[in-house]
Design goal:
The protein is α/β, with parallel strands linked by helices. Helix content is about 35%, strand content about 20%. It has 24 helices and 33 strands. The protein has a five-stranded parallel β-sheet with strand order 27-31-26-32-33. It binds 2'-deoxycytidine-5'-monophosphate (DC).
Length: about 675
C-alpha cells in the first residue's frame, strides 16, 4: 500500500497480463451483515479486505458476533436475530454499505428488544444523507436521534425491550437518492416479519436497481424470500428467518473490474488482458460496464469468473449513455472519454453527488486539470478529450474510485500526447476503501518506456548508508528499489553453492547470468531459498567484492539490473549505478561519509546485533574494500560527473533522505509546476 502523500506515475504505454480481483465490496458487506444476523455459522470465502469491510467487521464484533479467521476463510457466528449487546458506539468510517443497513437493523432490533446504539463515521460520512431512511423507519415506531445535522449521521437508535413495530401498513421509502435506503430496509425488516408479511413501497423512480438485485439474491441465499412487483413494491414473506447458507463465496468486485476493462480497451494492444474473479455469471450490476466498454470499442470476451479485454477500435468511440444502472463503474467511462474521438455524455448520474465525495464536481475539476473540456450539471457530465494534455496533480477527495479511474490518464502517450505527461495522484492510499493493492496490481500490468521511468541512483563506498537511504527514499516515493550490492552478493553465494571458484571469471559469469533472484520487500530469495541474512554477512560482502571485480560478471548482471527500471520509478544503490548501469538517471547521488564515520556506523550495527567487533579492524577492512572497489578496472567506484555529492557523516537517515528528496523535487516537473 502506498501510504504516502502522493504517487507520481510516469507516462504509460501498454498493458498485458492477468489480474485477480479482490472481493466485491457490496457483496462483502451485505454478506457480513446477513451472516451476523443469521442463525448459525457462516463460512465466508474470498471476503474483501478493505477499510469498508474492516469497519463492518468491527461493528459485528462490537455487537457480539463470533468472528474467526481461518486463512482465506472467515467464520461468522451470527446473532440469530437476538441482540447480545444492547449498547454500542459504532464507528463506520466512510462506508455507506455499513452505515445504512446497520442503522436500519439496529433501529429495528432496539425498538423490539431494547438497546441504544450510536452510529458515526468520518466527517464526509456525516455529509452523506440518510434522512430518507430515517423517515421510513420512524413511522414503524423506531426511535432515531440525529446527533448532528437533521437527516445525516451521526445517529443514535434506541428503544425498550418488548416494543412492537407498526408493520401492518406498507413501509414507504424514497428510491431516487440512494438505493441503499431500500437495501437497508430489505436487510433489516426480515427481522420483524415472523408474524406477518412486511411490505415496502418505493416512492419516486428507483435508481441503481442492480444493487437491489444483489440484495435480493443474497437475501435468498440466507433463506429470505422477497416478492418483487416491478420496482415499486417488495413483500417480505411472513415467517421469515435468517438462516446461514453454510458457506458463501464473495465474487470479485465488478466495479473494480472496470479499471482493468478500461485498461485493456486503452492499452492492451498486443494480447488480451485477463481479469479473474468476476465474469459473465456475475450477480453485480456493474458487470454491465462491459457492454459500455464494448460500445466504446473494447474487444471483450467473457465466461464464468473471467473477462478478457483487448483494444479494438482506436481512438475509442465517444458515447452518450444513461448510466443509472452502473453508477460506480460509470466514473471509469468518464476517464475513458479522454481517449475517445469526440465528447462523451454520461447521464443519470445524480447519485454521484452523495457518494464518497460529490463525484460530478470532483470529476469535472480533475479532468479539466488534464486538459479535457468538461461540462457538468446536476445529473450529467460531458467530457471532450484534451486538445493538449497537461501534466497534472489530481486530487482524490478521499474517494477510492477517483484515484483508481484517474490513474488511467497516465496512458496519455497513446492518445498522442506530445510531450507524454506524467501524472500525480494525491493521497493514493484512499484506494484502501475497496482495493488496497490497486497500484501494485496496476504496476504489475503496465509497460512504460524505460527512458521515461525516473531513476535516482545512490552510489558510494561500503557502509556509507546508501542502502538505508535508498530504501527509505524508495518507500517515500512509492518506487521500486534495487540493492545492486545484493545482486553481487547473491552471485558470490550462488557461485560458492555451485562449486565455481571465484577466480573462474567465465564460470562465475555463467552463474550470474542464470541467477534466480527474487526481491520481496526486505527479504531476498535465491533459487527459492530466503538468503537475506546470509547475504548481509561481512564474509559474503568480501566475496562479493571479488566477483564484482570481474568484467564478465558485471556484463552478465547488467540486464538484470536494468529490468528494475519499471513504473512508477526506481531508486538504485551501488557503486556504478550512476556511471555504468543508469548513466541517464534523472538524479545521481554520491555519498561521501569518511572511512572513520563509516567504521563507527558498522561497529554500532554489529554490536547491536551482539557481534563482537573492533573499530580499527572495521576501518582497515572498509579502506581495503574501498581501495579494491576504486582501483578495479571494471566500473571502479567513482562519482559520476553529474552526481550530486552528499556527505552524510553528520546527517541522520531522515535528514539524508530529506536532502535527496529535495534534489529530486527540483528536477521533477510535477513538483516544479
Ligand atoms: O553495497 P554492498 O556492500 O552490498 O556491495 C557488495 C559488494 O559488491 C561491494 O564490495 C561492491 C560490489 N558492488 C559493485 O561492485 N557494484 C555495485 N553496483 C554494487 C556492489
Amino acid at each position: 500500500m502506498f501510504d504516502i502523500p502522493h504517487l507520481d506515475l510516469p507516462p504509460l504505454r501498454g498493458a498485458a497480463g492477468r489480474v485477480r480481483l479482490p472481493g466485491s465490496k457490496s457483496i462483502s458487506n451485505r454478506v457480513l451483515l446477513l451472516a451476523g444476523l443469521a442463525e448459525g455459522e457462516t463460512e465466508v470465502h474470498d471476503l474483501l479486505g478493505s477499510d469498508d469491510t474492516r469497519v463492518m467487521l468491527q461493528a459485528l464484533q462490537a455487537l457480539g458476533c463470533g468472528l474467526q479467521r481461518d486463512g482465506a476463510v472467515l467464520r461468522v457466528r451470527g446473532l440469530g436475530g437476538r441482540l447480545q449487546v444492547h449498547e454500542a458506539d459504532l464507528f463506520l468510517g466512510n462506508a455507506g454499505t455499513a452505515m445504512r443497513p446497520l442503522t436500519a437493523a439496529l433501529a429495528v432490533l432496539a425498538a423490539t428488544q431494547g438497546g441504544r446504539f450510536t452510529l458515526r463515521g468520518v466527517p464526509r460520512m456525516h455529509e452523506r444523507p440518510i434522512g430518507d431512511l430515517i423517515h421510513a423507519l420512524r413511522p414503524l415506531g423506531c426511535s432515531i436521534d440525529e446527533l448532528g445535522q437533521p437527516g445525516y449521521p451521526p445517529l443514535c437508535v434506541h428503544g425498550q425491550a418488548g416494543g412492537r413495530l407498526q408493520t401492518q401498513q406498507p413501509i414507504r421509502v424514497r428510491g431516487d437518492v440512494s438505493s441503499q435506503f431500500l437495501t437497508a430496509l430489505l436487510l433489516a425488516l426480515p427481522l420483524v416479519a415472523d408474524a406477518a408479511p412486511v411490505v415496502i413501497e418505493v416512492d419516486g423512480e428507483l435508481i441503481s436497481k442492480p444493487y437491489i438485485e444483489i440484495t435480493l439474491k443474497l437475501l435468498a441465499r440466507f433463506g429470505i424470500a422477497v416478492q418483487r412487483d416491478g420496482w415499486r413494491r417488495f413483500t417480505i414473506a411472513q415467517g421469515s428467518r435468517y438462516r446461514t447458507p453454510g458457506a458463501i463465496h464473495v465474487e470479485g468486485d465488478a466495479s473494480s473490474a472496470s479499471y482493468f476493462v478500461a485498461l485493456g480497451a486503452i492499452a492492451a494492444t498486443r494480447s488480451a488482458l485477463r481479469i479473474e474473479g468476476v465474469g459473465s455469471d456475475s450477480i453485480q450490476g456493474d458487470i454491465a460496464f462491459v457492454d459500455a466498454a464494448r460500445a466504446m470499442g473494447a474487444e471483450v470476451q467473457s465466461g464464468p469468473g473471467w473477462i478478457e479485454v483487448r483494444r479494438g477500435r482506436w481512438p475509442l468511440r465517444a458515447l452518450a449513455l444513461d448510466c443509472n444502472h452502473i453508477p460506480d463503474a460509470a466514473m471509469t467511462l468518464a476517464v475513458m472519454a479522454l481517449y475517445a474521438d469526440g465528447p462523451t455524455r454520461l447521464t443519470g448520474i445524480a447519485s454521484w453527488r452523495v457518494k464518497e465525495t460529490d463525484r460530478i464536481a470532483a470529476m469535472a475539476t480533475e479532468l479539466r486539470k488534464l486538459g479535457a473540456a468538461v461540462n457538468a450539471g446536476d445529473d450529467f457530465i460531458e467530457v471532450a478529450p484534451p486538445a493538449r494534455w497537461q501534466a497534472a496533480a489530481v486530487d482524490t477527495y478521499d474517494d477510492h474510485r477517483m484515484a483508481m479511474c484517474l490513474s488511467l490518464a497516465a496512458f496519455n502517450p497513446l492518445a498522442g500526447a506530445n510531450p507524454a505527461q506524467p501524472l500525480r495522484i494525491r493521497d493514493p492510499q484512499c484506494v484502501a476503501k475497496t482495493f488496497p493493492d490497486y497500484f501494485e496490481t496496476l504496476f504489475g500490468l503496465v509497460q512504460a518506456d524505460p527512458a521515461e521511468v525516473p531513476v535516482i541512483t545512490v552510489d558510494g563506498p561500503s557502509a556509507s548508508g546508501k542502502g538505508t537511504l535508498a530504501a527509505a527514499l524508495a518507500r517515500r516515493l512509492g518506487w521500486h528499489f534495487l540493492d545492486s550490492g545484493a545482486v553481487y552478493r547473491a552471485t558470490a553465494l550462488a557461485a560458492g553453492q555451485a562449486g565455481v571458484a571465484l577466480d573462474d571469471e567465465a564460470g562465475v559469469a555463467r552463474v550470474a547470468a542464470a541467477l534466480d533472484l527474487r526481491f520481496d520487500g526486505s527479504r531476498i530469495w535465491l533459487a527459492g531459498h530466503d538468503v537475506s541474512d546470509e547475504l548481509r554477512r561481512e564474509s559474503t560482502g568480501a566475496l562479493a567484492s571479488r566477483v564484482a571485480a570481474l568484467p564478465a560478471v558485471r556484463r552478465a548482471l547488467h540486464a538484470l539490473q536494468l529490468s528494475f527500471r519499471r513504473a512508477p520509478g526506481l531508486v538504485a544503490d551501488g557503486r556504478d549505478m550512476g556511471t555504468v548501469v543508469f548513466p541517464q538517471a534523472t538524479l545521481k547521488v554520491f555519498l561521501t561519509a569518511s572511512a572513520e564515520e563509516r567504521a563507527k556506523r558498522r561497529y554500532k550495527q554489529l554490536i547491536s546485533k551482539g557481534i563482537q567487533a573492533s573499530i580499527a579492524d572495521l576501518r582497515a577492512d572498509i579502506e581495503a574494500r574501498d581501495a579494491r572497489d576504486q582501483s578495479r578496472v571494471a566500473a571502479p567506484l567513482k562519482p559520476a560527473e553529474d552526481a550530486l555529492r552528499l556527505d552524510n557523516s553528520q546527517l541522520g537517515i531522515d535528514e539524508s533522505v530529506d536532502a535527496v528528496q529535495q534534489w529530486w523535487q527540483q528536477r521533477n516537473p510535477l513538483d516544479r509546476a
